[in-house]
Amino acid sequence: MSMTQQAEPAVDTPPAPGRKQSDGRTRQRPLALRLLARPEVGVFLGAVAVLVFFLFAAPPVRDGSSMANILYQSSTIGIMALPVALLMIGGEFDLSAGVAVVTSALTASMLSYQLTMNVWVGVIVALLVSLAIGAFNGWMLVKTGLPSFLVTLGTFLILQGVNLAVTKLVTGNVATDDISDMDGFTQAQKLFASTFEVGGVNVKITVVWWLVFAALATWVLLRTKYGNWIFAVGGNKYSARAVGVPVTFTKISLFMLVGFGAWFVGMHQLFSFNTVQSGEGVGQELIYIAAAVIGGCLLTGGYGSAIGPVFGAFMFGMVQQGIVYAGWNPDWFKAFLGVMLLGAVLINLWVQRTATRR
Questions:
Q1: Which of the four pLDDT bands, split at 50, 70 and 90, describes residue 253?
Q2: Cβ proximity of 295 and 81 under 8 Å
Q3: Within 13 A of 326's CA, how many CA atoms are on the CB side?
Q4: CB-CB contact of 52 with 298 (8 Å)
Q5: Of 176, 204, 39, which Cα lies nearest the Cα of 103?
Q6: Which of 126, 169, 291, 328 has its CA 20 to 30 A from that of 344?
Q7: 73-88 burial, b if ≥16 CB within 10 A, otherwise e?
Q8: Sign of CA dihedral 188, 191, 196, 202
């Protein structure tokens, strides 16, 4: 018998067929958790719940004309909520968005009427003014490093004062003159404030524009390089700049998109009512921001979608009109608004923690 024994070679047992080994890091999460990770899922469920509630609490909501009115109210909020949401995903927000809508409408109205020009001239100049306001906000932000809260709060106060002072100076009143009999008004009204019929129900053109803008914003966010830039600068602008993302361009262009939205909604208001009240718009910026937050966009940036704010705006329109159709005191709307906002924030927080939990 030998004093030394040779060790037998180890035999590796192959894994059983059909069994896939995993270290726990590559394990696929359940479908429910993956759905919860989507920022628009929570607000979609909330919108469905609000709709069902008012279908029972306010029977007039079931009428086609009532639903068309709800969609119209939602669209006027939703068109602005979309660029505001993109800006929030990019890590900023704009407190001047509400009064900027009125600034745009006032510019187009007074320029056209006082100079007796075709209204399309006023519309184009108003677009340039709105884009310039957005560019100014973005430029101030990137050049000074100040928080967007301070920059846009200053712009908010400036525009609020200018709207009132210039309107009184030019027209001698707090409202602009009626431009309904001016050249180009009918054509502009067809684009911004017309109505079409669907199944015997009159629907505002803003509903169509709202859905078109939502589809376009979704495509930009999910299918383009610019969409990647938005998420990158919202997540961490320093890391984004380090990998070649044009942070300055992205930030300024996002503010200009808000300016474009303000111009479009301002033109709708002008060509719907033919005149503009210079003191309007204060407080609307909070509704736009709230619709985006309820839609799943985080104030910290880097997270959100374009579809979520669509449902958020629909919830606003549903509650605003549903209270009226139910015969309740409309003063309760702001209370419902606060409840929805807090509820959405808590739900989004729970959804993120649940979705990221292993």
A1: very high
A2: yes
A3: 18
A4: no
A5: 176
A6: 328
A7: bbbbbbbbbbbbbbbb
A8: negative
Q: What pLDDT sits at residue 86?
A: 95
Place of tokens 């380090």: 242
Residue 4 has phi, psi (to 5 degrees) of -115, 140
Checking if the pLDDT of 346 tops 90, the result is no
Residues 204-232, mean pLDDT to the nearest whole number: 95
Tokens describing residue 169 = 């100076």
User: What's the Cα-to-Cα distance from 300 to each of 35, 304, 332, rounded to whole Å?
Assistant: 22, 11, 29
Tell me the per-residue pLDDT of 99-108, one tens digit each, with 9 for 90 and over.
999 999 999 9
User: pLDDT-based confidence at 354, cuts 50/70/90?
Assistant: low
- What's residue 207's pLDDT? 95
Beta bridge partners of 197: 202
Report d(CA 128, CA 131) in Å as an integer.
Answer: 5
Q: What are residue 135's phi and psi, to 5 degrees?
A: -65, -35
DSSP state, residue 12: P
297-312 pLDDT, tens digit per residue, is: 887 888 888 999 999 9
- Distance between CA 252 and CA 235 in Å, rounded? 17
| Cross-strand bridge partners of residue 175 | 277
Q: Does residue 192 have a pLDDT over 50?
A: yes
Residue 180 CB contacts under 8 Å (≥ 6 apart), including other chains? 274
pLDDT at 217: 95
User: What is the value of pTM for the model shown?
Assistant: 0.86
DSSP letters, 227-254, are: HHHHHHHHH-HHHHHHTT--HHHHHHHH
Answer whether residue 256 shows pLDDT above 90.
Answer: yes
195 membership: H or E segment, kind and range: strand 195-198
> What's at 15, amino acid-wise?
P
Among residues 97, 141, 123, which one has the least CA distance to residue 258?
A: 97
**Burial class (CB within 10 angstroms; exposed 0-12, middle 13-18, buried 19+) of 112:** buried
Q: Residues 258, 259, 260, 265: is their CA dihedral positive or negative?
A: positive
Of the candidates 219, 7, 130, the one whose C-alpha atom is nearest the C-alpha of residue 138 is 130
